[in-house]
Structures are given as structure tokens and as C-alpha cells.
Amino acid sequence: MAYDYDVLVLGGGAAGLTASGVAANLGAKTLMIERDRLGGDCTWTGCVPSKTLLKAAKVAHQLRHAARYGLADQPLKIDFGKVIAHVHQTREEVYHDADRPELFEEMGVTVRHGQARFVDPHTVEVEDESGTERVSGRYIVVAVGGRPAVPPIDGLDGVPHLTSESLFEIDALPKRLAVIGAGPIGTEMAQAFCRLGAEVTVLDRADRILSYDEADLAAMLQETLETEGVRYFLEADIRQVRQEDGEIIIEADVADTLRTLRADALLVATGRQPNLEDLNPDAAGLDLTAKGITVNARCRTNVSHIYAVGDVTGRYQFTHMSEHMAKVAVTNALLKLPMKIDTRHVPWVTYTDPELARDRRPRRRRSAEHASSLRHPQPRDRRARR
Q1: Which are the contacts of 158, defined by CB distance < 8 A and separation ≥ 6?
Q2: Averaged pLDDT for residues 260-289
Q3: Beta-strand (E) ranges in the chain?
Q4: Distances (CA, A) of 211 to 118, 187, 215
Q5: Which of 26, 65, 311, 314 is geometrically suited to a Cys-Cys bond with 292, CB 3.0 to 4.6 A?
Q6: Predicted TM-score of the model (pTM)
């Protein structure tokens, strides 16, 4: 059977960009389909903007406490609009240097913008403003990513709230910020906004922050953040969220006591879910779970010529693992080499100050200094990694 392309890559985030680049470099006729701008979560709503904001917040904090370094403390008046403008500029620079379509077209990748959905196991329909077109591929790599998961809290649907997709689009610093979720995103942004001048309160159902990290190190970090001004309501069962006279009101049971929290802005940071609704995976016969598309250690789905990589699989929510999975998938598909996901060396870093790190090897106690020395790699130029 003749196919339009050797490889169809659905999605142009970190995983899709890597899969497309590797496939094209191996000589495969490759089409990459992305409904938004190339770069995905890492460039636009994840790694790049969050770490840029964290850096600005750290500089502000160091200036305020310059006496620690033998200098004079510097009182600051922060122009949050300029801080966010810097975040936006940094995103655009990364996009221009590493993600824009022309770079991949120079590699031999055909880039198409539009919504892709399966028609059958080898065919997808691409819809854009000009209409629809069907294309087929011998191999298909699904890399459509994920998005923030918003929990079913009473009243939340009727209250304006932020997620990681909208947080970096605001241009005014909220005086009082409430954060639902004490995982990596919630913890990083709590510190960043606190250091930039907001009053920050974090709520979580767990009895501690960062439940996947070492308990003793997470406790040390929480103590540091509390010293800086972040307030925590842990073991909090949120009963209701509502808005009155422009204020966001959160009612929660905290250690069997009803507490009422008032805020000017609300960030929901309670995990992620796969982008599957518009993909029509049933038409391809793909096995799914609530976490995403099921894959084996070679990133192959139950349909032998279809691979899935990155956040859409629900296995790892890291840029470096999305890229690793993409390389594994394309290597298996095109070269038939039995490459598998390396699950023993998975760096996991929360970019607070101090940073917190671990990997998937057997756990051992680490000092905070050692934890902060383990960096999760984020080179700016993805071309160099191919």
C-alpha cells in the first residue's frame, strides 16, 4: 500500500519536534501537524516561562537580602508588567531559535497547522481555516501532549481562575494569590509570586507538599517557603469556591476546622490530563486509560505501526522524557532497533530556591545542597539534541 508519508507526527511540542527531526534526519518523508504554534507546553506555558519568572523572582529576593553577601539590602518597586513582558520576550526568542517551522522545513520536515484526527489506523484528517484534507502515513507518532486538569470543585466553573496555560498572560500582580495544589507547579509559582510581592496561600488535600519527593527534603523546603511568607493549608478539603464583589472566596475543611480564604486571583495547579478529545483515537483502535494512550517500553501502542510519546501517554510529565520517548519511538519504527525507555535514570527537579531533585533509582537520603546540584537538562536549541 502506498502512503503519503513515511511518518506522520501529530503534535509539535517537545516530543513532536524531536520525533520529526529524528525521522527526517533518518531520511523518512515526514509530516508534522500542530494545531497551535510549534514549541508546545515547554516553550509557551511550562519550562521556559516558569523558569524565566522564577529567575526574576530570585533576583528580586537576592536584592532585598543583599546584606547576606556583604552588600546593602535594596528596597524594590517591582513593575510586574515589565516582568511578564520579559517572560514573553524570552518565549519568543526560544521559539525563534529552536521551534519555528522554517527550522524544521530546512531539515526536510513538512509542517502543517491544523487539528488532526484519526479516520482509520493509517489516515488522519487535518482541519484548518481553509477546510479539511486527509493524509496517510506508514508510521504515526502521537505527540499531542496534555493540558492542566481542573478538579470538580463546587463553584469553580463559575469563578475566574488561572492555570499554567493562562498564568503567564496576566499583566498585573495579584495582591492575594490562592494556589490549589502543592505539587511542583504550585510550589514553584507560590515562591515566585511571593517573592514578587503577592500574599500567597497554598491549599492541598495531602498532609505535605511535593508528595512524590523525599519527605524530609520537602519539609525543609516548606519551612523555607513559610519563612519567606507563603502560607499553607494542608489536609484541606475544599468545599466551595465562589466570587463576591470581585473577591474569590474559598471555603475548606482544614484539619476538621472550616476555614474561609479570600483572594484576588486563584491558580489551579492540580496535575495534567492528555489531549485526546479531538484526536478520535477510537478510529485508530488505540487502547486508552484515564492517564492517556497505553504504550510499551518501546513507545509502541497496541496498533503496531502507531507510537505515542510524551504527556499524552501519562507516563512522564517532563520535557527531557518526552524527547527521550520520541527518539525511542522513531528508532524502533524506522531502524527496527530494540531501543527501550530508560526508566532508571529519570531526573526530577522542582525549581524552587533551594531546588529539590531526585531520580528513579532507589532512593537515598540527600542533603539539600546535593539536591540542588542535580539539574534537569533544558538546552535551548533542540536541533543540537538531535
Answers
A1: 242, 243
A2: 97
A3: 5-10, 30-34, 109-113, 115-120, 123-128, 131-142, 146-148, 176-180, 199-204, 231-234, 236-244, 247-254, 257-263, 265-268, 272-274, 288-289, 292-293, 306-308, 348-350, 356-358
A4: 37, 11, 7
A5: 314
A6: 0.90
